[in-house]
Design brief:
Structural class of chain A: mainly alpha
CATH superfamily of the largest domain in chain B: HUPs
Mean pLDDT of chain A: 82
Largest sheet of chain B: 5 strands, parallel
Strand content of chain A: under 5%
Number of helices of chain A: 3
Shape of chain A: elongated
Largest sheet of chain A: none
Distance between the termini of chain B: 66 Å
Mean pLDDT of chain B: 73
Helix content of chain A: over 70%
Strand content of chain B: 5-15%
Distance between the termini of chain A: 48 Å
Order of helices and strands of chain A: HHH
Largest interface: A-B, 49 and 51 residues
Radius of gyration of chain B: 24 Å
Number of strands of chain B: 9
Oligomer: heterodimer
Helix content of chain B: 40-55%
Strand order of the largest sheet of chain B: 3-2-1-4-5
Order of helices and strands of chain B: HHEHEHEHEHEHHHHEHEEHHHHE
Low-confidence stretches of chain A: none
Shape of chain B: globular
Chain lengths: ~110, ~425
């Protein structure tokens, strides 16, 4: 299958995959390093959106203009709607529990 | 029926507003005592629209008129059309019916009061049909002229009042009214339960829109060139639209408006994608920096977009853009957590708000001052804090309370003990 693709396309697929991996890595690092639930919700959802986004873009590019490729684009839109909704749900739950967002000088938690 | 003098009187009224800055500064304080009675003056003006909360607003208006000694309740409907429009007559007739119903409600409420009927009269009027009214300023001008003419000193707003139908006007209307000499109050009524609203709104337009959308989606997933997928698709789309068209679509699709929104939404997608990538790179740099230079704060921003889909679009766009996370939406106030100051500044510049307005209301409505210029934003934490943090435990996550606001509990100390914190 790869042989059929042009070199430029392969390069793009590789670039997208690497970018997706990079942003997923950033997301993971953020979850481990950031101090509280709010800031983690930022990175867990956001860098992930782009991580999954680039991954799906690579998939769509590999498959080409076929049914499966179109579906991966749809998946991307799906992620773009559900991801912030989930992040909002987490943040709102924390807010209603009375969790005060971390500020400079607080302890990590 | 139209009050032809309104436009003439209005100009001096509108020009005499002044002191916008002072009013804006007072506004956050006003929220707390919104439930307080308005100063008693001759008449109470209630702009009327067929909203779900109209009945409750009328009831409250009657109560307020009796308690505060208003002599007249003016129920006014502001025309969103202009005499001579093709459908002006039918719309005026419709407005008259709404006014008649509102008047009947007000009178029956007055009659039902204990003891004698208080000396309160009810007047109705259809105003503003002699010109096109474009924005909150126009509405306020017409309202102020009417109030002046009829010696009314107070305005009571229905919380769901949206005269144009496709633009939310309550918040800008409140703001513009605060620049006049009128006393303004929003009726502290809660909207009826969602179930009640859902039942009343089944229309063909919604059904067709939902059917078309479901069928298109089904065929996209299936094979549009295979007859069997058409059969199952039509059956599925029919079931979906019968059960869900009243739930999923909350405003009636209209021919020029809905397709235009879709087109403008398509324009918005690449803009949003670009913003996401740009902000993602910035956040990635912060997270990978060994010093982890974050300055997270919680912020409040009052946004001017309609409730429902536009607000959801804006809140989700804010969350999608890295560095900002919508924590809570309370009426038109968004509580947004920001990770770094530049993300917060970007938020207060309001580009996403303008884009959302562009998508839903078109280009002309997108031009508005940034939240910073409107003084509609506040930082709730850290050294730059301008407002106290409304700690959420105090309100228990209830729906907006009767009085509209819950008292904020002071919590300035950043090292304040929060026993609930268990994560991490």
């Amino acid at each position: 299958m790869i042989d059929a693709l042009g070199t430029a396309r392969v390069a793009l697929v590789v670039a997208f995959t690497l970018l997706g991996l990079f942003f997923t890595f950033v997301s993971m690092t953020g979850v481990l390093r950031l101090p509280d639930v709010y800031s983690r919700a930022h990175t867990a959802s956001q860098a992930d959106t782009l991580g999954a986004g680039f991954g799906l873009a690579a998939v769509a590019l590999t498959i080409g203009w076929e049914a499966a490729g179109v579906k991966s684009v749809l998946l991307l839109f799906f992620i773009f709607v559900t991801n912030p909704t989930a992040a909002h749900a987490i943040a709102r739950a924390a807010f209603e529990e009375g969790t005060v967002p971390w500020t400079e000088g607080d302890e990590r938690r | 029926m139209a009050d032809t003098d309104a436009a003439g009187d209005a100009d001096d009224e509108g020009a005499g507003s002044g002191t916008a800055g002072g009013d804006a500064a007072d506004r956050s304080g006003d929220d707390a005592d919104r439930g307080a009675p308005a100063a008693p003056t001759g008449g109470l003006v209630v702009p009327v629209e067929p909203t779900p909360t109209l009945r409750a607003t009328i009831a409250y208006a009657v109560e307020a008129a009796v308690d505060d000694g208003f002599s007249t309740i003016h129920l006014v409907e502001i025309a969103s059309w202009r005499n001579g429009d093709p459908d002006a007559d039918s719309r005026a007739a419709k407005a008259e019916r709404v006014l008649e119903r509102a008047e009947a409600w007000a009178n029956s409420d007055l009659d039902d009061l204990d003891g004698d009927r208080p000396p309160v009269t009810v007047a109705t009027e259809l105003i503003g049909a002699d010109e096109y009214l474009f924005g909150p300023d126009d509405y306020v001008r017409v309202l102020a002229a009417y109030a002046k003419e009829h010696d009314a000193g107070a305005v009571l707003l229905d919380p769901e009042y949206t005269p144009v139908g496709n633009t939310t006007l309550l918040q800008p209307l409140e703001f513009a009214l605060s620049n006049t000499s009128l006393t303004v109050e929003t009726a502290p009524v809660t909207r009826p339960t969602r179930r009640e609203r859902l039942r009343s709104e089944a229309t063909g337009g919604r059904f067709v829109a939902m059917f078309g959308f479901s069928l298109a989606f089904y065929l996209l997933l299936g094979d549009p060139f295979y007859w069997f997928d058409w059969v199952t698709g039509i059956a599925t789309a029919a079931i979906v639209s019968i059960t869900l068209s009243r739930v999923s679509i909350d405003t009636e699709p209209a021919i020029p408006r809905t397709p235009m929104r879709v087109v403008r939404g398509v324009i918005y997608v690449p803009v949003l994608l670009f913003e996401i990538v740009k902000a993602n790179v910035e956040i990635a740099r912060v997270i990978l920096d060994p010093r982890l230079p974050i300055e997270p704060t919680l912020n409040r921003m009052r946004v001017i977009v309609g409730s429902g889909l536009p607000l959801m679009t804006l809140a989700n766009s804010i969350t999608l853009t890295p560095g900002t996370l919508t924590v809570r939406a309370r009426d038109s106030d968004l509580y947004v957590h920001s990770l770094i100051p530049s993300a917060r500044d970007g938020l207060f510049d309001g580009s996403l708000e303008r884009w959302t307005r562009f998508v839903y209301y078109g280009r002309a409505s997108a031009r508005l001052p940034t939240p910073r210029e409107r003084d509609d934003c506040a930082i709730l934490q850290g050294p730059d804090a301008t407002e106290e943090l409304p700690i959420a435990a105090a309100d228990g996550g209830a729906e907006p309370s009767e009085s509209g606001e819950t008292p904020p509990e002071p919590d300035e100390g950043s090292d304040a003990a929060t026993p609930e914190v268990t994560d991490g």
